[in-house]
Amino acid sequence: MREPGLRSLRAFGLPPRQMRRSVSPDDLRSLAETRGFTVDEAVLIRNRVNAIYFKAMK
Questions:
Q1: Structure pTM?
Q2: Per-residue pLDDT of the chain (58 residues; tens, 9 = 90+)
Q3: Which long-range contacts (CB under 8 A, 24 or more apart) does 2-10 make?
Q4: What phi and psi, each to the nearest 5 degrees, are found at residue 57?
Q5: Is 28 within 8 Å of 43 (Cβ atoms)?
């Protein structure tokens, strides 16, 4: 089975250049709050790949 991310890249290509920047937990929190979500937690996880753990409710 192929990974969903790879299938998405093949189907749609790379995102526009202005959208390729990194997103911080604060950026994600701000975006969610402007969309009406209450953010419980937004944490940057550093392991092999940087990821954000994000928990919010609408």
A1: 0.58
A2: 457 667 777 887 877 777 667 788 898 899 899 999 999 998 888 867 778 888 899 8
A3: none
A4: -130, 150
A5: no
